[in-house]
Design brief:
The structure is a single chain. It contains 10 helices and 4 strands. With about 425 residues, the chain is of the alpha+beta class. A 4-stranded antiparallel sheet has the order 1-2-3-4, with no helix packed on it. Helix 2 crosses helix 5. The longest helix has about 70 residues. It is elongated. The relative contact order is 0.12. The N terminus is likely disordered.
């Protein structure tokens, strides 16, 4: 129910700034964060308005030339008022001229304007794609930071208990004051880890809040998710075909060729000669006459040669750009897929082997140390090893999750189940 109200608020309030008091009272899921991005991010809002502005150019392209009214009134003898006779001695000429476009100029203008709108919308969707990936990566970073903070808090608490127990052993004479001081001094490392983890979480929160367009950067902002990465079973060719069908940057390169072809047709049409026809009414004293006018430019020198050549060269460049974009898409897919496979294998390796081994070593060495079977150095080394393995395991799963989002980015489809 609370989340339903959250989506309703997004719909009703549109692009109004989000204040801390307007945030939902539950931690955001990734889906809710993406909805908030689409509704509130000022960069998206700016590009959305720009796309609408470009689309307005279609209206301009579809307009016909306006007729021109010319009115000429002559022979007003104001210096001889006695001879001023508007009915007999003055001349009035009114002319209406209409330009007639030839060569289907208006049709090709509209076609070019529509392709310009399409390219702008694809540019907008590409910016949205990039921002959504940034939010997903920021979301994973904040989840990782929360997990690391919890680990640092648990480690600090557990080590505090170790310090307390060894204080009892010191009083009983089981360890020397020097060993206890070294144990107590090691606590600074865990306290420093906690402070660094808290800073990392604060920075990750601010970065995500900025992407979501939260101007107040509220401290109560929170998210919910787990460090996990799904196993994907897509072939490289399937991912490549998805990318070709959905990636806005490639679609823009492909449609840029169509825009270039439309511009070539428009340049050719603009080389056609337009004519202007008009009608005229003249009153000269008591006489009333009508006339007709035809204007035909003699295009001896300017036949739009420069634009014809330019648009054809632009079309050649567009075709080369489409091929380059296709190659880049294939390379992006290949690299993202390999990065995902490597990240997932590393995460599974830590989960199935390294983490459990490090935990068992720590527990055994700790038990031996408390019973005098292991040295202080061995105990501290086991603690550091376990701590480093825990951090590496979390980082590996965060990297695997980010790799899934990277695959979604390069294919412009949502691959997370």
């Amino acid at each position: 129910m609370r989340r339903a109200l959250f989506y309703l608020a997004l719909f009703l309030f549109g692009l109004l700034p989000v204040r801390a008091s307007e945030l939902p009272d539950h931690p955001l899921t990734l889906r809710e964060a993406l909805e908030l991005l689409r509704a509130r991010n000022p960069v998206l809002a700016s590009n959305r308005a720009h796309a609408e502005a470009v689309q307005a150019g279609e209206i301009t392209a579809n307009l016909r030339p306006n007729p021109v009214l010319t009115s000429a009134n002559e022979d007003f003898n104001v210096f001889k008022p006695s001879e001023f006779d508007i009915r007999r001695k003055q001349e009035f000429t009114d002319n209406v001229l209409q330009l007639i476009e030839r060569g289907h100029k208006r049709r090709f203008r509209v076609e070019s304007a529509r392709w310009a709108t399409t390219l702008t919308l694809e540019g907008y969707r590409d910016i949205q794609r990039q921002l959504e990936f940034a939010v997903k990566a920021g979301f994973v970073a904040m989840v990782l930071a929360k997990s690391n903070l919890q680990l640092a808090r648990d480690n600090l608490r557990d080590y505090g208990e170790t310090v307390r127990l060894n204080g009892i052993r010191l009083q009983a004479g089981d360890i020397s004051p020097t060993d206890f001081d070294r144990i107590r001094g090691e606590q600074a490392r865990f306290e420093n880890d906690f402070l660094n983890a808290q800073l990392a979480l604060d920075q990750a929160r601010v970065q995500l809040e900025t992407l979501l367009g939260l101007p107040d950067l509220p401290e109560k902002f929170d998210i919910e998710s787990e460090l996990a990465a799904p196993e994907l079973n897509f072939s490289r060719e399937e991912l490549f075909q998805r990318a070709l069908a959905n990636r806005p940057d490639y679609l823009a390169a492909r449609d840029g060729v169509s825009k270039g072809e439309a511009d070539v047709r428009l340049a050719d049409a603009n080389g056609a000669t337009d004519i202007a026809v008009g009608s005229e009414y003249k009153r000269n004293g008591p006489d009333n006459t009508i006339g007709f006018t035809v204007q035909i430019p003699l295009r001896i020198f300017d036949r739009n040669q420069g634009e014809k050549l330019r648009t054809r060269k632009e079309l050649e460049a567009g075709r080369a750009n489409e091929l380059a974009a296709r190659i880049a898409v294939r390379a992006d897919v290949a690299q993202a897929q390999q990065a995902y496979r490597t990240a997932l294998a590393r995460a599974q390796l830590y989960s199935k082997d390294y983490l459990e081994r490090a935990r068992r070593v720590r527990d055994r060495v700790e038990f031996s140390f408390r019973n005098g079977g292991a040295s202080l150095l061995e105990y501290l080394d086991a603690l550091r090893s376990y701590r480093d393995t825990e951090l590496a395991w979390r980082a590996a799963y965060a990297q695997a999750a980010t790799a899934v989002h990277q695959l979604s980015l390069v294919t412009a489809t949502e691959l997370w189940p």
